[in-house]
Amino acid sequence: MANSTLKSAALLDQMKLHLATDAGKDLVKKIGLVYQINIAPKKMGIDEESFVVDLKKGEVTKGPCEGKPDAAFSFQDDDFLKVATGKMNPQIAFMRGKMKVKGSLSAAQKFTPDIFPKPSKM
């Protein structure tokens, strides 16, 4: 994700490549939802960058979702990396206020570290 200052942008670039693999195509078939992820460098709501992880089409794009995503998340950059790499449980992140969710909670519950490529592939 060129021209992004976020550490998370590199992970989202990996996600884009991951979705082109067989494992990524299986995810698209299994989940079939659209997520918008808003990531702030320091404080949620300030200078956020938006990314769309489209698990219907199997793509990751920078910018807000066209239409309505199934679920939208807000994170601070470091917290997103912790959740995406499995170092922080998404439910715990939510309860501690490290992650905000809008939209369908059932869709949000399918947003787990399992959908991200494993760090060994990075």
From TrEMBL:
SUPFAM superfamilies linked to this entry: SCP-like
Origin: domain of life: Eukaryota
Residue intervals of the SCP2 domain: 18-112
Cellular component, GO, one term: cytosol
Any Pfam family matching the protein: SCP2
InterPro entries: SCP2_sterol-bd_dom, SCP2_sterol-bd_dom_sf
Name used for this protein in its record: SCP2 domain-containing protein
Organism, scientific name: Papaver atlanticum
